[in-house]
Structure formats: C-alpha cells, structure tokens
Predict the structure.
Amino acid sequence: MKVFVTGANGFVGSVLCRKLLNRGDRVLGLVRKTSDLSFLAGIHIQKIIGSLENSATYSAFLKDVEVVYHIAGAVSDWGSLDYFRRVNLEGTRKLIEASAANKVKRFVYVSSIVVHSHIGACDLDEESPQLETSFPYVQTKREAEKLVMSYHKADKIEVTIVRPGDIYGPGDRVSLLKMAPMLEKGMMGYIGGGKTIGALTYVKNLAVGLVLAGTKKEAAGEAFVITDGSKISWKEYFKALTEELNVPAPRFSLHPSIAYVIASVLEFIYRIFHIKKRPPLTKYLVTHLTKDFHFTIDKAKNILGYKPETGFNQAIKETAEWYKQVVRDNKEN
C-alpha cells in the first residue's frame, strides 16, 4: 500500500513510518526543508520536501496514495490563535483538499483528547462533552476535526480521526529532553501532589492504533481515542521514570491555586513584553495536570481490534534507555 505521512521526521511520525515499512507499505513522508531528519536515519522512505501551507510542494506526490496520515501540526500550550489556525486548520484544509483531488481513499487526522476540554473525570470516551475553551491549541484541533469530517460527510474522502493522550516514549525531544535535566537537578515538582490520573499514550502503541485507523474498513467516519488504557497518576509516572533514570523523584509540590496564579502572572508578563518563548509554567499545563483526564479505549478495542502492545513498565524502560543514550552521545561529541 502507498501511504503519505506528514511530520514524518517527528516523534510520532518516525515511529509510524517504521511501523508502516515493516508492514511492507511504500511510505512517502512530508518534511520541511529545515527539518532535523535524524529520526529517519536508516529507514527507506521517500522524503518529500515541502510544507502544509504550500500544497503545490506535495500535491503531485499524492497520486495513487491510498492513505494519508496527517500528524504534523502546531502542538504547544503557548501561542496565538492566528498561529494555531494557520497551521492546524488552514494547513489541514489544504492537505485534505489535495488528498480529495487526488482521490486518496482514507485520510487519518491525528487530533487529541484535549478536544474534550479537561473535564476532570475518568472513563471518558469519544462522546464526552467538548466544553468551551480559551486555549488556542484545543480550539483549532476541534475546528480541524469538524473540517475533515465535513469532507467525509460530503463523500469526498473517507476520514478517520485519532485522539491520542499524553504521548511519551523514545524520541520525545519536546518534553523528556527538557524534563529529565530538571529532574536530575531537583528543580521539578508536582502540582497538587501529582495525584491526578493522566491519559498516557506510549508512542509505539499509538503507531499500532494509527495503522488500524488507516486500514480498518469500519473506521471510516469515526473518531477513536488511542491511549494505553491504563489508570496511572502523574506521581506514579514520574516515580517509575526517575527510578529508571536513577535520579531523585520530585520532592516538592505546588497547590493548584498557587500554580495557576503563578502561571497567570507569567503569561501576563510574557504578553506585555512580547516574549515569544513559552513561559516555564502555563495555565494550560496547570489545568491539564490538576484534573483527572482518563479515557476508556473500548471503542478502539471493539471496532479497530486495538490492543496496546507495550506495557507501562517496558515503555518506561525503553523511554529511559533512549534518554540515557542521548546523554552518552552528547558527552562523546
């Protein structure tokens, strides 16, 4: 099968590309001209240099493609609504228009469980409420979901939406490479004691779910939550991770109300002085970490036949080993 992956060089995209290649698929990957391609070293995909904003750079390569996996996007808890809309909504619009024009069979859109607004509960599912939100990332993910599903309803292209939770694993340059040094120095703490339940999603398990979303006939027109399905608190997650890294677990905790005030002040200062860099603490992050946010994966199990292949302990071990290898490589260089 010929498939097209956006963000192929990234954390999730590179793992998916390997999974698809192991299936025997022919993989085309969209990467930006300035992208770090180290995660694609040693794997044989056809790299398409282009950007979501300019469909002319990739449209011709969609001919005879059966499945598009749209992973690339703006993923952050900080930034303007205009920025997120330009990437997450308009970039998606151009890609699905080009996909439909080239008669691609299936368009798999990688969204997020955060479209459900941090309700604060366990055993949520795909039909759980999507309450009003002020967070641009959440808002644009919802808008993009509605956009792609409108193409499905108009019979222009089959669409399947995948909503991962908090993704972790080897290759996590966004979170782990920043968190681990802070853990080593004892500079990282919990919010609310780390007691809330998250929606952990090991990157290799996510890749399993994405392949199923792109290949199962029954997946067309549906949205699926893909997580590990486990009920693990943030304190349990960091305890396991720090034990594997052989560093101290977080030793202090901020009360949620205090953390929210600090985040609000930081955001105000960053906006007043037009600081583009992300604040060290944001209201989004505090909200995310202080409410239970766990989802059942029954729908994915029943319709896709999804089953997480890697358990939590093994996933943490592989994650820590990757980080330790990065540290060793940096010391040698």
In short: Residues 89 and 121 are 28 Å apart (CA to CA). The chain has ten helices and 13 strands. The mean pLDDT is 95.
